[in-house]
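Annotated sample (chain length 155).
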Amino acid sequence: THGLRGYFSSDYLQNYVKNAEVISILIGTNDFGTNQPLGDITKYNSISFNEEYIGSYQYMLKKIFEWNPKATIIILTPTHRSNGEDPNTQGLTLLDYVNATRKVADFTSCKCIDLYSYGVINTLNYNEYTIDGLHPNQVGHNLLAEICYKVMMNY
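Output written by the structure step:
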């Protein structure tokens, strides 16, 4: 398995995607934190990278489908985080990005693991499972991996 963090070129990402059987994607919390506009799920034909959260997500999925149409794509919603209940400068909370992520999964017929609703990392315990209220520590990574494994075995 390969985990990719941050921003990568299309060619770099394509090399990892083209032969994968299962691709899991966990994004959204940085979009909340950097005040990315959500966008509109119905504007699929005008999507582009970095325009808005939903459009960028759909664009990424479109490219993955092009590179590897046989792959199973599993979308993971963001987990709870510190300050996730506070609105960002767009007036949106983390839950708005979680809901947008669920819509993208529905719209594209991708499987979705709703880590936010699963609630194992939540507002009461995120300090136990993260290094900074956002990024999972080793215990948090292990917990999320265990949950994803259990859910994926039912797909």
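Annotation: The CA atoms of residues 86 and 93 lie 6 Å apart.
Annotation: The chain has a mean pLDDT of 88.
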